[in-house]
Write a structure and sequence with these properties.
single chain, 263 residues, alpha+beta, eight-stranded antiparallel beta sheet, three-stranded antiparallel beta sheet, 13 strands, 22% helix
Amino acid sequence: MRLIRGWEERYSPNKTGDLQLSKATVYGAIGEEDGLGDRREGEVRARWDEGHLAVKWESSDRLPGAVRRISEDYHGSDRETEAFRRAFAELDDDPDLALHRIGPGEWSTSQNLVVSAKGIDSPYLFCMSREPTTKSEWEKLRTALPERYDTWTVTEDVDAVQFEIECGIKRWLASQRITRHAINWAKGFVTYPFESAPPSGDPADAFRLARWFRKRTKYQDQAEYRFAWILSSDELEDIPEKIVVELTRTGLALFKPWTPPLG
């Protein structure tokens, strides 16, 4: 498997001799302005059934402003359907709120709530992309990533990259005088299974690294492959958002110059 990576040349490993790893939350925060991360990546949601809602159509044809979406199982009368159409005409679609019809003038309401990640640290990420083999694939990737990238490298040995970076992480821990620690890791291609928000699921997903390997479909042209590491230690009170790990000569040799396909 061949993976490529874009860099600002001044920050490429062959210039600096090291790599900067940032937490997933950092990428999410800059996603909208820089195109790298997705502000909804890593998000876990769970469905909460809130109760019932009754509407008297003879007195008002507008629904409460908190309701944004009719569920797919809604089948109302022509009058109700028209009232819904008018009520939602000026409201933004919100996939987190829904209305489920029970009977004439009566609905149950549900909401998809974001599971709190308080106290759960986000992983450090190192991201690459599947190598494009045609000019059209390259153009899609080039458009999906920041314009500031002006140099590209290719890597063939994914396991070696993981090993070298983990050695660098351990050297960083040693430099901080951390002797007791744990490193949990995951790697693989990112999937792009949802348009606007991840579907509701098991709240326990908040504790799993797999949640950081899902993004919205708008990012699918990145064809992203990720490495993720979570560090934990009772000797480290404040885990920084970014760390710099040094690479050995062997590690640096894993990032070879790459030229885009011409056709």
